[in-house]
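Let us practice reading a record.
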Amino acid sequence: MSLITPGEGEVVPAGELGRVHFVAIGGAGMSGIARIMLRRGIAVSGSDARDSDLLAHLAELGAKVFVGHDAAHVGDADTVVVSTAIRDSNPELVAARERGLRVLHRSEALAALMAGRRAVAVAGTHGKTTTTSMLTVALQHAGADPSYCIGGQLVTTGLGADEGTGEVFVAEADESDGSFLIYTPHIAVVTNVEADHLDNYGGFERVKENFARFVERVEPGGTLVAGADDEVAMELAVLARDRGLPVLTYGEAAGADLRVSGFTPRGLGSRFEVDGVGEVTLGVPGRHNALNAAAVIAVARALGLDLATVRDGLAEFRGAMRRLEPKGEAGGVEVFDSYAHHPTELTADLSATRDYVREKAAGDTGREGRIVAVFQPHLYSRTRFFAAEFGAALGLADVAVVMDVYGAREDPEPGVTGRLVAERIPEGTTWEYVPEWDEVAAAVVRLAEPGDVVITLGAGDVTKLGPRILAGLRAASS
């Protein structure tokens, strides 16, 4: 994967793209863009390496879909859309270039859909998906009916993207490959900025430089919404004000425009206060989600919406899939799933889980259940960079099962395995390194006890373990 170089040409409005073919249409981001195009009456085709429910859904909407990659699948397309993960040798990309077709990166296709709308682009190292999801639900409740494209799926609808009738377009802005620099938002949200994707950026300074460039792309008259608890986000706020851009800050910091206080866990939710709004309740756990909600309120203020109605909409939010998503209970053990794949994200989710088990114990039997964390490191480079930090984060669990690395787009690195993380877990946390995927569920069933909470963590196929763990727990308790 390489960093995108944006700004090489003007954004082509979606109505001028002609027939559009997506290479790897089954991904969360690509399928969402395809769905919106279909809703706008654009002819869409696409291929993916494997069949899925998303492909079937797109076919029902009118897309012509293929399983497997072949040059013939491009057909009579005028535009071909690819993601950074698509290699130059892909036969459909090769055919598109040989025929001189317009080839767009996924972000350029999304920018085409955003053209002419009041675009709200949500960026940051952590919290993008949940904040974008919360914002979508809250704006829907407020009657704004936004178009939206999220890097995940809403629990309530199963959708990650759709076309709305309103003028606002809400989009998750991915910084991993630099592609968020293609957007020109009316409102930019920066939740926080930390070191990540260093396989692309090389160092934290370049990460910060790209976020500064992102803020510079906010259109005149727009607004920056920045996390007041994050040092880099506040540096970006200074840059924005220096160029005359209005800024709204949110967070627990004393000087935040929308200050969060009084955070109190309530089961799988919470309550807290936001200055100028009053009490806010959420149906999703964690202090980090209270901050995400405050970001939503800040955006709503910038859009001129009724904040009480937006607050009510936040109370209806039930989460995004794979963000501390409940998967079920068996044998007295609850199982959750999380996309967390950075040390800060593990820390946030495990802290939220600790709040949950403590409150449950206080209102139930008095016995505080243990947290059993099942972590699959994502990318060899990220594991090498952050092994110690991952180990420290897993120290927040009582029991940790560490899997081998999910390489995704990367080739294996000698000596870089899940054991690098496991051996850095501090004393006080019991851990096992289980490199064989098929053996993980049985290990968890063996380790878990009634009253425990199991949480699977990672951006890879660890998400498929939840049903296996639940089945094993049922069998063990029968």
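A brief commentary: The CA atoms of residues 148 and 416 lie 38 Å apart.
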